[in-house]
Amino acid sequence: xxxxxxxxxxxxxxxxxxxxxxxxxMQTPLSKSNNRRDDRSLDGHHGSPQWHxxxxxxxxxxxxxxxxxxxxxxxxxxxxxxxxxxxxYNGKRCRMDSCFDFSLCxxxxxxxxxxxxxxxxxxxxxxxxxxxxxxxxxFYTSDPGQACLFVLSLDTxxxxxxxxxxxxxxxxxxxxxxLWNNGxxxxxFNLYSGTWPDYTEDLGFDFGQAMLAKASIGxxxxxxxxxxxxxxxGKDHPSAGGERGYLKYNSIPPYRxxxxxxxxKRYLTGIGSDTRNALYHVHNxxxxxxxxxxxxxxxxxxxxxxxxxxxxxxxxxxxxxxxLHNSTFCLVPRGRRLGSFxxxxxLQAACVPVILSNGWEMPFSEIIHWNTAxxxxxxxxxxxxxxxxxxxxxxxxxxxxxxxxFLWEAYFSSVERIVLTTLEIIHDRVLQQAARSxxxxxxxxxxxxxxxxxxxxLGDFPxxxxxxxxxxxPKFTAIIHAVTPLVSQSQPILKLLVAVAKSQHCVQVIILWxxxxxxxxxxxxxxxxxxxxxxxxxxxxxxxxxLPYDTIxxxxxxxxxxxxVLSTTEVDFAFTVWQSFPExxxxxxxxxHFWDSNKERWGYTSKWTNDYSMVLTGAAIYHRxxxxxxxxxxxASLRGLxxxxxxxxxxxxxxxxxxxxxxPPIKVTQKKQYKETMxxxxxxxxxxxFGQLSMVRTSRASRWADPDHFxxxxxxxxxxxxxxxxxxxxxxxxxxxxxxxxxxxxILRKKYKDIERL
Length: 758
Fold this sequence. Notes:
By secondary structure, this protein is α/β, with parallel strands linked by helices.
């Protein structure tokens, strides 16, 4: 009997052991396989080592393929759930090296094609602005055979099925596109995805291997270096230009009336309600003012809680704009989705954003260092937010506020800026050898105006000299624009050539021959101490004077019209001033702009006034990078207008430089007395109409003698302002003269004494 018990016990133990080994052996390989799959999807590089991936942002929400709770299944059917998983996770492993065809970009570079709009398809104004921005950019091509990137004409911005802007049957429409190719090399823009009550990131169609430029995207679904996180913006967001930031001056110390503010909706239940429901805990009605209202939606009264009436009453007492402009920090909690309109509003108002949206991939996170312009908080640590922002030193607050203004104006002030930034990010991925550095993206004037094709070295850009502690080279190249034949040895161009060549800072003189007559013989040009290079302009158009010629060896360019009258002393002094302001235009002939309220348009004037906003390039010095920017950044339509009119090229250059620097040009020593060789009648006519001339025109074909010349410049002002989206020109009343200029002291004590004799 005892033996039977022992055998029975041994048999039972053996059976248990076999069962454990059986089930354990089935589970262990699956676990290992899943881990390898996850590592590959996070890494994104086939055959590369399996590095550990740390997200850096909290991820409190479970992936949709793991949501098996009762609450979730009540709201969504199995079929809908499969669609969600397919829509969100299909292409999850995509990276640039696996889901992008670089060969399409080799021949024609980075070109973007927009599908033609289909008849009968509705399109929101916001999406129309996006497509218009692409079509007006330097990347656009109308030929799909030249394209590197493709953008749908089907409106994908609002994928909330309850929205009137929702486009139905998008799955079928996209699949029928002959260039779709499972989304490869396609870019899809989206602001809203999912719908009540769960607000998933589902787009409602299979976007395959397409890249997403998406607002409110979570770190779990964001594919690094493939997708682009964009900000949530409203339908009233400016299409181009946009208003500048509201920080007009730096107050020291940089404190405002309020420390921290918020005003917005309170969600009683559902996703996004936790943080906003708890804001009353830190609201003190003094310097921390966090206001919410339940008064939204049709049946809000049916669901209101005991605190709603009190919150609504407090909410109505404060003006949101007044709070926004008088607070140091602005709370940006998540709403139903991760993004919020409050984010861009805070940036523009120089109110440092305090982000409470766990798992949100910040806009343009690939290029922007958000720790220099925002405070990234944790929703679970809401009660610590007031003490945290109070502990930030005033020096850091000032720096944060200044950076909000830079980022707003550089990347977020308009739909055009948001779209161009998105395209430039993808451009840098495609052409990695010409990618911008982090410093270019995160410092003035920003990545959109720092074209890496020009140079990858920061020291080659005029606006980075101060940061790097370097100075421009103490030499310049003069470019004289010649449009009339050389018929006499007494012509002003020859006198100008001799005077410029005598400058101690001049290393070379380039004569751009845009005259219809053949080039003069070499012996017709006077002998000079520096080389004189005569270039025959192939196109004979005005914009050719701003081409980035390889023959320009210096940072500084002295741009001159053929009939300008300047002495060597004037040239030397202007160049000395430019060395202190290498990012600006420095010169002599000044002009100004004004707003004509009667005609409701911009006006152009050459009258002598106490201020100016332009320095004409007929006698001005600037950095040679602006030649490259003029040719490569500005659209062909603007340059074509200049060439068609043979006019306004100097105005367009001033627009460009002021748009880049946000600063006015610099006028040097006033000189009202110029030697003029034009007919007395012509001079008197134009002097009466426009004020005393500061430039000299000697040819019978002079542009100044053309009665349409001034009207054309008025028209150019408005067309340029329309393209830039706003008026970039900045007024100034500063004029720089030599030390002791016009002072009653001995002329021998003055360095630039010859200027006073002119």
